[in-house]
Design a protein that fits this description.
Two copies of one chain form a homodimer.
Chain A lengths: L4 H8 L3 H8 L7 H14 L5 H8 L4 E6 L5 H16 L3 E6 L4 H13 L4 E4 L6 H9 L4 E4 L9 E5 L1 H14 L5 E5 L5 H17 L9 E3 L4 H11 L6 E4 L2 H13 L9 E6 L2 H5 L5 E4 L2 H16 L8 E4 L2 E3 L8
Parallel strand pairs in A: 1-2, 1-3, 3-4, 4-5, 5-11, 6-7, 6-8, 8-9, 9-10
Antiparallel strand pairs in A: 10-12
The first copy, chain A, binds a DNA duplex (16 and 16 nucleotides) through helix 2 and helix 4.
Chain lengths: 332, 332
DNA sequence: GTGAAAGCGCTAACAA
DNA sequence: TTGTTAGCGCTTTCAC
């Protein structure tokens, strides 16, 4: 029914090996033979079976991608970066959402290894000990994208979260603020808790400002919770906000304006993401640029090096960040 | 090196067939045998090779998903709907971006069929004749998600684009508007050109309002172009805007406000998407609810029916839409 | 309830 | 330059 390499070989009066060579662009085929085979392939509508090929060659040209949630624009951006580079290197992608659920992550890893992917790009706020153990034991290479593994056992691509947060808070401090609120994502996330929050504290300490726990509000990264956070903070009267992502920043802006305050005159806001939303907000958001697309792309590129057994010059890649100044802060 | 079904069989003193039965939860295994096999599987850390399984069984439990661009929130939402249902039915997803490029679409189809996916969910603004031909010839089932094939040859899941647009425009007409601008996405898209635009024209005609071509501005679905469109339209002074998606609607709102006009008092706006953004806009957007997640989920569900040779009661599924009234229109 | 054996469609030595 | 021949690791009859 379906036409196989054997059918082509028979019709072209050559061996399967020759057909295989033609299909795989092996140079050791006489042009005339190649042409003849190609003609038969065309006539029969032969399409190589990648599953059989994968079994024989032990390569599937497929990589697994495990991310929290593709419907979240940050992860979607990351995924696009991964996919573009994957396509460039002729890999396909098996994409799965983990919802940051450890069991799901573990199971997804297992499934993908079972499917014999050639490599895996993984993203999660927390890499549990068990997950780490499984990753280290994995027969196929894994790269962490925008995810921290403090043991540095697994390759990863990140930005300097601490430095970025420090610089953002310092900018607020330099603008004269004393009461700087921090609307932060879940503290279960390593990056939030160990990097951003620490940077916030140290930037304040370095400026001689006392740390006030009341100024920290943990949110689930959503617009609604950010709005609520601002309402909760009203009694404290913060004059500046450092906010963990663009969606929450828009919530902050709206809530602050509801209080009758003007941005940036009365209150300044710095976001941390710099997605398309940052320019769609009014006022437009000053934001730490968190290059998700690039992190995805570089992660995938790094993975290709592992898959090809290329030399790895740097296992823990740190990409540059910058602060994009727009209208939600007073700039020079 | 890697442990195979054969190793397990040897260690457990049973045949490969028995191990296979255990792994596949076949009931024809004595409990004692099952237990023994399971123990060996555990000890050896055996993980079934899905590629070998796929070759032998001719099923990969993988479906292909071809969408324009995962970094666009509409398609990301769709993808999440697809993935959730796929997971429910134990399928994995190979996700690829086509950027609506016909050659890429053709080539992706080919690649996925080569990878022996069990089914494909496809989305694109235009399904060319050649693409259609390939789809009809495809040995594996294909479902179109949010995409029109007027020949109805391929299964599909959509909403009533015409009805939704008609109702939106009628609402504007009923609110007394005569100069209703239509900020529409690319007219290369079937849905825009053959459904939405037609609905717009007929809703006006039915209200006895002359069609004015100048009120139609074709955009690339982006915030920036929508803003420009409003500026271009300034001389015509539209009093209402029907806009093809939320991002553009926000552009329209900002541009209208720059003209010193108030929404909805001076100008009304109806969007067409109803994403998270609709609630994050100020004023919040009245919008036709285009249920992308559901379209993805239903498409995938429909695909499972084809893959299982279940009875298909409806090949062309039409999902309900509704209009979500918020602040960008005057409501009763 | 269990086993033997024939493939699934291809790649990759190794020969020729 | 081309062909022969083992597998790759599993499922699936068909016997027993």
């Amino acid at each position: 029914m379906t036409v196989t390499i054997y059918d082509v070989a028979r019709e072209a009066n050559v061996s399967m090996a020759t057909v295989s060579r033609v299909v795989n662009a092996n140079q050791n085929v006489k042009p005339a033979t190649r042409k003849k085979v190609l003609k038969v392939i065309e006539e029969l509508g032969y399409r190589p079976n990648a599953v059989a090929r994968g079994l024989a060659s032990k390569k599937t040209t497929t990589v697994g991608v495990i991310i929290p949630d593709i419907s979240n624009s940050m992860y979607a951006e990351l995924a696009r970066g991964i996919e573009d580079i994957a396509t460039m290197y002729r890999y396909n992608i098996i994409l799965s959402n983990s919802d940051q659920n450890e069991n799901k992550e573990l199971q997804l890893l297992e499934t993908m290894l079972g499917k014999q992917v050639d490599g895996i790009v993984f993203m999660s706020d927390v890499i549990s000990a068990e997950l780490l153990k499984e990753m280290e034991r994995s027969p196929t290479p894994i790269v962490l994208a925008g995810s921290i593994d403090e043991s540095a056992a697994i390759a990863s691509v990140n930005i300097d979260y601490y430095g970025a947060a420090y610089e953002a808070v310092k900018k607020l401090v330099d603008n004269g603020h004393q009461k700087i609120a921090f609307i932060i994502g879940p503290l279960t996330s390593m990056i939030n808790k160990e990097y951003k929050l620490k940077a916030y504290k140290e930037a304040l300490a370095d400026a001689g400002i006392d740390y006030d726990e009341k100024l920290i509000v943990e949110c689930n990264n959503s617009y609604d919770e950010a709005m609520e956070a601002v309402q909760t903070l009203a009694p404290v009267e913060p004059t500046a906000y450092f906010v963990s992502n663009d969606e929450m920043s828009i919530g902050v802006i709206h809530a602050v304006e509801e209080q009758g305050k003007k941005i940036p005159m009365d209150v300044e806001v710095i976001s941390y993401e710099n997605s398309k939303l940052a320019r769609m907000a009014r006022p437009m958001l000053t934001s730490v640029a968190f290059p998700l697309y690039d992190i995805g792309a570089v992660s995938m590129r790094l993975l290709t090096k592992y898959m090809n057994n290329e030399e790895i010059e740097e296992k823990q890649v740190i990409l540059p960040y910058r602060i994009e100044e727009r209208e939600s802060t007073k700039n020079d």
